[in-house]
Prior knowledge:
Elements: H1 3-21, E1 51-54, E2 57-61, E3 77-81, E4 84-87, H2 93-113, E5 124-127, E6 133-138, H3 151-158, E7 161-163, E8 170-172, E9 178-184, H4 186-190, E10 216-224, E11 230-238, E12 246-252, H5 259-262, H6 270-275, H7 292-309, H8 325-332, E13 394-400, E14 430-434, E15 451-454, E16 462-463, E17 467-469
Parallel strand pairs: 13-16
Antiparallel strand pairs: 1-4, 2-3, 4-17, 5-6, 7-8, 9-12, 10-11, 13-14, 14-15
Helix pairs in contact: 2-3
Amino acid sequence: MNKKSVWIVTALCASLALSSCLGPKSASSAVGGELTGIHGVAYNEPAPYGMVAVKSGYLKVGLQEQDSLWGDNAPTKEVSVDGFWMDETEVTNAKYRQFVFWVRDSIIRERLADPAYGGDETYKIEEDKYGNPVTPHLNWSKPIPWRKPNEDELRAIESVYVTHPVTGVKMLDARQMNYKYEVYDHTAAALRKNRINPLERDLNTDHSLPEDQTVMISKDTAYLDDEGRIVQETITRPLSSAYDFLSTYIVNIYPDTTCWVNDFANSENERYMQLYFSNPVYDDYPVVGVTWEQANAFCVWRTEFLKKGLGMSGVQIMPYRLPTEIEWEYAARGKEGNVFPWETKDVKSDKGCYYANFKPDQGNYTKDGNLITSKVGIYSPNSNGLYDMAGNVAEWTSTVYTEAGVESMSDMNPQLKYQAAKEDPYRLKKKSVRGGSWKDPESMIRSAWRSYEYQNQPRSYVGFRCVRSMIGNNKRK
């Protein structure tokens, strides 16, 4: 049995154990009237496929020595971080392409069920096996007729492709690759000031609030206009129900392949624009040209994809997400808290081999053996088992970038979050990116180096990896 099969079986067993924990327990099951507690079935969380465990622990984040040469602003603070799972490599083109193709196939299935394309109702499930109505959803068990489609099926399939008007090249219509998802803000809903019942609110120092006091809530919503364009809005309205904490997003998830020519003026990078994401040669290279918004959409999709694959729809599991800025630094420094992900302060071994893919010399990108990105995982991992935590591509985090950095955060699981609206000033759209990239010098690939990018800006040198929060005691030994 291969590694993937073992993981799937383990996860299925774990999901069964989890479901048994959720079952009803009798409060009268104690013996002799003694207080014994109600205990669930033990649940040992399996290692998510392709991820490694980063155990909880302590770290003094930031640069320990002043960086007078580069003028770096890296505030220091002693913090504690809970354990989490982290992708051992950056998300690759092949893995992100699975997301794109899932969106493509969902569009095709919707159209195959549409009367305008033949109306095959078997591509959409609207009732259960007993004939009871259910929320309409796509039937993924019915294959798309790629080989011998009839006329209507062919029109549905061809509708997601376009032909270049000049070159005649047929390609996926990137404009249609939109992913819609919803996020419930558990934190906002839990705040006492946002309680739906006015008597439970606590806004004033005397712990009272008039029952007729109006609480205003802001939420994000999105829709497609008549021309198929995404309209994203932030609305503010009086709190009336739990749905006021549910935000809707529609994100075009196709990578911006033009970043290769837009990031570097007067360069011959057309080959990367045309081939980097689509050609199998680059399957195991980190995906780039992905915005912070697209990376978040990928995390949501990955969570739902896992839940459906394990038959856990409707069961709450720890979602995939982007790491916080501090989680990223904690993981990158390794178990020893090093300046770089490796043990020494040098960037190459005694034999002259570089430890990461970066820009070792002025203008000489190839000195480390790579001109642009490299395949993920070809350099040695750090002590946490993570690859490419320095160089290759800088990585998105979930944290808002501020000059104060960790100084303005808690010392336990530090984080600053803000989902900037379209109309917000650009300074509020800064998100922290970490690790430096293939185009950056030595100083920028240190684990404590702080940088940022705007949440809607794709770059040829920024990618990402996912994390999942751990369950239970996971202290680093």
